[in-house]
Amino acid sequence: MALFLSGGTFLTILLFSRLLESSMLNAEVKEGEILPPTIQRLMKGYNKYLRPFFDNGPVTVGMSLDIASIDTISEINMDYTATIFLRQRWTDERLVFEGNKSLSLDGRLVELLWKSFLHDITVENRLIRIFPNGTVLYALRITTTVACNMDLTKYPMDKQTCTLQLESWGYNINDVMFYWTRGNESVSGLDSLQLAQYTVEDHYTSVSEAIYETGHYPRLVFHFELKRSILYFILETYVPSSLLVVLSWVSFWISLSSVPARICIGVTTVLTMTTLMMGARTSLPNANCFIKAIDVYLGICFSFIFGALIEYAVAHFCTLTSTDSHMLMYSHHLHDLDDEINGIVTTISSHAAAASRAKRRAAKEQAAAASQPPASTELTVTPSSPSGSEPKPEPARPNTLTGASRPWQPSANSSAP
């Protein structure tokens, strides 16, 4: 039973292989019907699944590049997008024909020939040309995004070295060998390339091997060095941040009593500097573990601006403390002065009261003196009284206030003669 099943399985596999071979032959016949006679003779018995020199060592493939454009260079994703023209040359002894002119074929005929496999995403822009000695020229246009490990420690005064690697995907070094057709001159188009923030300073090529678990694979590497243009960052970052630092120093020439003016300048410059720092980091990776040169510069500028604001707070606090101490000393001095003034006022008031009393006493004495008749040296003869007695003259009384003698005058109640 087991033998019967094995025989049935073998017959099924054999029948399937015959059908597959018949379908492939039919497909080749159908394709051969539209090919010119020369290509029909070349394609007769040609197996595209077998590489050239299948039993005689590896096939050598020469490559050259033409850089059409480098569209974008992203620091966030650390990659770049480039459009290049890749040209490959190899010799296939099965495609040798008589003549001295090459045959330019339609790009759709590439499917009929053996070609080197590259781990790239390609478009349908392809060219194939066969030379009489069996050399095949295969060119295609590639638009791809390639990783570029960047060192942003000196950003924006940095230089980046990016690479473009061409590597065999299906054949190892025992089957295929890659080489640059003209060395460093195999890559063209960089001299006329215009980039937004970079300039291409240098480029060179190298040949290496990629080592994996499945074997050693050929690899061609193209290196190019990019230098960042710093003029944009000078105008957009360095000059504004420097002017903000100078603007924060203007508050040093404003009086300490002008609190709104100094606070307005300090807070405005701090907020503007914060916005400038955030804007400078929008085109950079958010998660990184290295400090860039622009971060150091903006950090120093922010420290100066923040220090100017803190300086005003400290100066204002010291002024308030000094004012309080001076006010306390001044209050003590005023208290002592008040005590002294009170003593002086008390003395003056006591002297004034004594003087007032003396004046009142003198006034009273003057009034009393004015009410008495003054003494006179002249004698006045008065008529004799009825009693026959004669009045005696009174001695003169000196004036108390003036010291002068006034003549005596008879009083109103004196009897007339």
Automatic annotation (TrEMBL):
The Neurotransmitter-gated ion-channel ligand-binding domain, residue ranges: 39-229
Pfam families: Neur_chan_LBD, Neur_chan_memb
Keyword list, A-Z: Cell membrane, Chloride, Chloride channel, Disulfide bond, Glycoprotein, Ion channel, Ion transport, Membrane, Signal, Transmembrane, Transmembrane helix, Transport
Protein name according to UniProt: Gamma-aminobutyric acid receptor subunit pi
Superkingdom of the organism of origin: Eukaryota
Signal peptide coordinates: 1-22
Domain Neurotransmitter-gated ion-channel transmembrane: 237-345
Function: Pi subunit of the heteropentameric ligand-gated chloride channel gated by gamma-aminobutyric acid (GABA). GABA-gated chloride channels, also named GABA(A) receptors (GABAAR), consist of five subunits arranged around a central pore and contain GABA active binding site(s) located at the alpha and beta subunit interfaces. When activated by GABA, GABAARs selectively allow the flow of chloride anions across the cell membrane down their electrochemical gradient. Pi-containing GABAARs are mostly located in peripheral tissues.
GO cellular component labels: apical plasma membrane; chloride channel complex
PANTHER family assigned to the protein according to its UniProt record, in alphabetical order: NEUROTRANSMITTER GATED ION CHANNEL
Catalysed reaction equations from the record: chloride(in) = chloride(out)
Organism: Mugilogobius chulae
